[in-house]
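Below is one protein, fold included:
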Amino acid sequence: MNSLDLSTLIGAAAAGLLVLSLFSIGVLWLANRRKQQSDALKQRLAASAPTTTKRAKTLRLWYEGQEATTVVVDESMTLSPWQRFLQLRAEAGFKMPPETLATLIVVGSVLGAGALFVVTQRWFPALFGLVFVPVVWWWMATVKVHKNAQKFERQLVDGLELCARALKAGHPLLAAFQLIADEIPAPVGQIFAEICQQQALGVRMEDALRRSAMQTKNEDMQLFSAAMAIHLRSGGNLAEVMQGLAFVIRERLRLGRRFRTLIAQTQISKRILIAMPIIMFAVLNMISPDYMAQMYTASFGQLMLASAALGLLLGWFVMNKMANLKV
């Protein structure tokens, strides 16, 4: 009777927590909905501000009695967990406000842990449910970041070739960038549209390109920004430069596809080796639940489960590093 009352009390508490969480999400959504337009406006107006950040260093070069300065990003500085969360959210393309997204992740973790505790009456599955939602979100965000990066690279090649043809036809540089913004969809079209908007606000083209390269975190965009900064200062044939950059990026993508074909066997082996223990564990739980109950009740069994989960994560990480080739 006491266990039944405890289960009823836990269920009522979980239901109350769910109602409170939904109410909090609604309040946060209503509060952040009005801030979205103001944040977008502030982001556009920030383009006219000088690029003096703590994560940048200014380099001064002297050549033939003349001084030239450039700003590079200081990659040695570490980011806080919240800044890393914001960066991952932005790179993955989530449109939801960060406070609302973080609240949903926390609420989902608490509800998952509470549901597993109510079903199993054990703390170990509840701890697993507590970390399950953040891990799944991180995995989904990482996959979206990888897909967005591949899409950005393909669109950047098309945009550079389009810009090179426009420059050869006699269009000025800003008109060529506007043509990319009109013809190429997001995210590359949006990046070049922001460059044109910053140029209209009075920002130098070099600063606008550097800021866009810092925001995208893409090596090809950073190479394009550096090449454009050099040619805007020294002069040269911009059409040939863009055509050459497009050719280099396209060849690198072709080489990357060849590498991914060669390491496809490693990827399949990784998935099979990680899925086999999980499938066998689920089958044993269905066939003989009394036998597997010792893994949940005994402290040594819980330690073995934790060690197995840690081993799977370590193996997944090592095999990803083995198959990760940077072209």
